[in-house]
Amino acid sequence: MFTDAVLSWIALAVPLLPVGAFVLLGAGVLRWGRPDDRGERVIAALTGAVFTLSAAGALVAAGIFFASPHRALVLHRGAWFSAEGYSFDVTFLIDRLSVTMMVLTSVITGAIGRFSFRYLHREPGFVRFFLLMLLFAA
User: Fold this and answer.
1) What does the pLDDT read at residue 104?
2) N or C terminus of the chain with fewer C-beta within 10 Å?
3) Are the beta carbons of 92 and 51 closer than 8 angstroms?
């Protein structure tokens, strides 16, 4: 069904957006070092955009899921690791609780990121905080 495909793509995009920003931000810090004022604004804009897109995606996923007749949707995405007859599968379970938690996590971490920019301005742990927040949100 069309909504199942859309829901599965959105459900995968919501946690992968912060992971992508984490990698991008971490690579930028390793390349250019500690950011100046302009770099801090770029970091804040990047995390704000990621959390806005993540919250929008979570709200769309919640709307699709609550409008559909499904009680749960299981997405199998292959094996992550396998050893001697046992494999660790990558499986996402989407149900009413997980969709609600996606919305709640993306909105709250986005609000925390927005207000933390002002408090952590020019602090030595500025980049580390935003990196860890992106990783936690994922």
Assistant:
1) 92
2) N
3) no
No. of helices (H) and no. of strands (E), the chain: 4, 2
Nearest to 137 by CA among 104, 103, 111, 105: 105
Neighbours of 29 (CB within 10 A): 17
- What are the Cα distances from residue 128, in Å, to 13, 22, 82, 103, 118? 23, 10, 33, 24, 15
Q: What is the DSSP string of 44-57?
A: HHHHHHHHHHHHHH
Model's pTM, two decimal places?
0.78
Helix (H, G, I), strand (E, B) or coil at 60: helix
As a whole number of angstroms, the distance between CA 11 and CA 98 comes to: 10
Q: How does pLDDT run across 19-33, given as a tens digit for each residue? A: 888 888 888 776 666
CA-based nearest residue to 48, from 56, 60, 37, 59 = 56
- Helix 126-137 with 96-119: angle, nearest 10 deg: 170
CA 136 to chain centroid = 8
